[in-house]
Amino acid sequence: MKIENLTNILSDQPKYRFKQAQRAVFIDLIDDWSKSSNFPQALREKLNLECSLKINAEVFAAKDNQTTKALITLEDGLKIETVLLKHKDLRNTVCLSSQVGCSVGCSFCATGQMGFKRNLCAYEIVEQVIFFARLLQIKSQKITNVVFMGMGEPFLNYNNVIAAIKILNDNQGFNLGARKISISTCGIISGIKKLASENLQVNLAISLHAPNDILRSKLMSINKKYPLENLLSAVNDYVKRTSRKVMFEYLMIKGINDSVEHARELAVLLKNKLFMVNLIPYNQTGKYHAVEREKISAFKKVLEHYRVQVTQRYSFGGDIDAACGQLASKNK
Ligand code: SAH
Ligand code: SF4
User: Fold this and answer.
1) Is 322 touching ligand 2 by the criterion CB < 6 Å?
2) H helix or E strand, kind and range, residue 148
3) Ligand 1 test: best mutation among 219, 246, 247, 251, most atoms within 8 Å of CB?
4) Which residue, 98, 113, 166, 192, could crosslink 152 as a Cys pair with Cβ 3.0–4.6 Å?
5) How far is Cα 72 from Cα 269, in angstroms, rounded to an integer?
6) What is the CB neighbour count within 10 angstroms for residue 36?
7) Torsional sign, CA 64, 205, 289, 102
8) Closest-lying ligand to the alpha carbon of 108?
9) pLDDT digits over 33-57, tens only?
10) Centroid of ligand 2 to alpha carbon of 20 (angstroms)
11) pLDDT for 69-121, tens place per residue?
């Protein structure tokens, strides 16, 4: 798909053409301009040549019937992965990639291990949503939520991520509410500060994964640049400015960060009433191991005892390498 030059191509057309195009792409979800019946033939052909709506993707369905992964080949041949999660409560969430690979290199993450190739442009981010929206349209279903939890660090591609969110949010187009969009970051402070001043109602999640600097720096080298004290001070400011809840993601890794002591330390660290913790089961990608469900429950109980709001995430799509942290476009 290559619609970033749509505005240019339509610049010599009457103004209403852009609205029609927006409707065709984001609401009718057409995959070929020849289906835009109100456009003259010559314009349809020009758009198909210069502004293709084709998405080149391979689809993998998991046995759980809830997870579908798409391996999308971009115009330059690089590949990204994006995942659709169908929840029992009828939500359909797309887990978006913001970069090809990632430069942060967290020790537990397959994307981090593949290194960084390049940032995605805004339309390459939007394309991932459109792909699954077209797939769901066949069953008269819709995308209800979007999370930036695929490949890459969204705050290291800040401008394009925000531009993509604004395109998805546009009520003349895809019209996805900002509150239905979540950004997950490994803790890039500049991004947290900028988001606080954006006046966008999106949700912020912080990948914390450890309750102290020594452990966090071992798991995530980014912690050396943005240590916990500075990170939490930025998140506290964010909460003060926006009055929005912040989610802290905590990956449970066997024998590393899963003890009752770690849970206590975490509870003390996250005292703010607008903070929530989401415990994430580790998906096997490398040297670490997952924690048994009972042990996650015990960890959760400690947090509850300290009155920290806590939820437990279930893992989807492990058999097609579509679970969190497993995306690495290795099928290429
Ligand atoms: N770069 C951003 C967003 C992409 S990663 C971030 O780090 O937050 C999305 C989530 O998947 C993060 O919380 C990340 O820590 C988590 N994750 C990475 N590897 C994982 C693994 N092997 N198992 C489970 N979750 C993982
Ligand atoms: Fe990058 Fe996030 Fe993976 Fe860390 S967890 S390497 S920041 S994608």
Assistant:
1) no
2) strand 145-148
3) 251
4) 98
5) 40
6) 21
7) positive
8) 1
9) 999 988 999 999 999 999 999 999 9
10) 38
11) 999 999 999 999 999 999 888 899 999 999 999 999 999 998 988 899 999 99
In terms of Cα–Cα distance, which of 283, 310, 287 is closest to 149?
283
Task: Tell me how far the alpha carbon of residue 75 lies from the centroid of ligand 1, in angstroms.
Answer: 26
Q: Atom 15, ligand 1: which residue's CA is nearest?
A: 207
Sole residue written with tokens 């077209």:
134
Closest atom, ligand 1, to C-alpha of 153 = 1
The values of phi and psi at residue 270, to 5°, are: -105, 60
**Which tokens go with 163?**
């531009």
Which positions are annotated as active-site residues? 81, 324
Radius of gyration in angstroms for the set of CA atoms belonging to the chain, rounded to a whole number = 21
Q: What is the separation of C-alpha 72 from the centre of its chain, rounded to a whole number of angstroms?
A: 15
Half-sphere exposure of 50 (CA within 13 A, CB side): 13
Distance CA 225, CA 231 (A): 10
Whole-prediction pTM: 0.95
Does the Cβ of 152 fall within 6 Å of ligand 2? yes
